[in-house]
Design brief:
The protein is α/β, with parallel strands linked by helices and 278 residues long. The chain has 9 helices and 9 strands. It has a single domain, classed as 3-Layer(aba) Sandwich (Aminopeptidase). Helix content is 28%, strand content 18%. The strands form 2 sheets. It has a 7-stranded mixed sheet with strand order 2-4-3-5-8-6-7. Strands 1-9 form a two-stranded parallel sheet. Helix 3 links the parallel strand 3 and strand 4. Helix 3 crosses helix 9 and helix 5 runs antiparallel to helix 9.
Length: 278
């Protein structure tokens, strides 16, 4: 895919500005079904919540190298995000870090030769009751998340889901692949199949399929990204038994975890290889 910078800028200027709920500017955000908060902004404004105690935010933006005539793009290629990390959808924080190229236990570049990607995550830090901190992806308005995704060509968003939400058997170990970037979705499906992980095309409601332009995964320079909904059983099988905290999970990753990471990173590499910016 050859991308002209002027084309990108023109597309961004012409794109409609979306509110948190994908309506017109100035519309009042409404809570998604099952959510306590209408947006990240509303959650951060709750004086009963304490950052660092109830929830946390982690992100990393890498410097861009626009010097020289090597053909490298001064645009961020890919950002990896976990909007419901920590105890909200366990395992997604660790996957976010590893797919971005950092070992979740100590943040050491893994593999050491890279590449590394920008990342962002919102995490529930409570010992219990983290589900109340869930903000649906179409309502994600965290400033860092919007900035990182909006400056990237690609976004891969990681979520957890119950198999029943996806129409799967309760014990199913599967990942549902959604989002508007059909090329990245295809590569993800192929790479998961190559390592023996069951991948299914996501369908049904927006939270699972990730097809709304307002979904944080699609708020990219190209207006499209990819979303992975990973079943509870598949995530549980990625970590040693009894590893129920963020620190424990980070230190207890199993081979299946790294197979998943390898597949996702390979898919990202393939889509980036096909993106040439003039």
């Amino acid at each position: 895919m050859i991308l002209n910078r002027r084309t990108l800028i023109t597309a961004l200027a012409a794109a409609p500005v979306l509110s948190t709920t994908s309506g017109a500017v100035g519309s009042s955000p409404a809570r998604a079904a099952g959510d306590v908060y209408a947006s990240n902004t509303a959650l951060y404004a709750d004086i009963d919540l304490v950052e660092g105690v109830d929830y946390g935010r982690r992100y990393r933006r890498h410097p861009l190298d626009g010097v020289g005539s090597t053909g490298r793009s001064a645009l961020a290629r890919t950002t990896v995000i976990a909007p419901h990390g920590g105890g909200i959808e366990p395992g997604t924080s660790e996957l976010c870090l590893a797919i971005a190229g950092y070992h979740p236990a100590d943040l050491a570049p893994t593999p050491a030769a890279g590449p590394v990607h920008d990342y962002w995550m919102f995490e529930g830090l409570r010992s219990a009751g983290n589900a109340a901190l869930h903000v649906t992806a179409t309502h994600c308005d965290d400033t860092a998340a919007r900035s990182l995704c909006g400056g990237s060509l690609n976004v891969l968003s990681l979520h957890g889901c119950r198999p029943s939400r996806a129409g799967l058997a309760p014990e199913a170990r599967a990942v549902l692949v959604g989002g508007l970037n059909t090329t990245l979705r295809q590569y993800l499906m192929e790479e998961f199949a190559a390592v023996g992980i069951r991948a299914v095309t996501a369908s049904g409601d927006e939270e699972i399929a990730g097809l709304s332009p307002a979904n944080i995964c699609n708020r990219t320079l190209l207006g499209m990204g990819a979303q992975l909904e990973i079943s509870t059983e598949l995530r549980a099988a990625m970590f040693a038994a009894g590893k129920n905290t963020t620190a424990d999970r980070a230190a207890g990753t199993l081979p299946l975890f790294w197979s998943f990471v390898h597949a996702a990173r390979t898919a990202i590499e393939r889509v980036e290889t096909g993106q040439r910016v003039l």
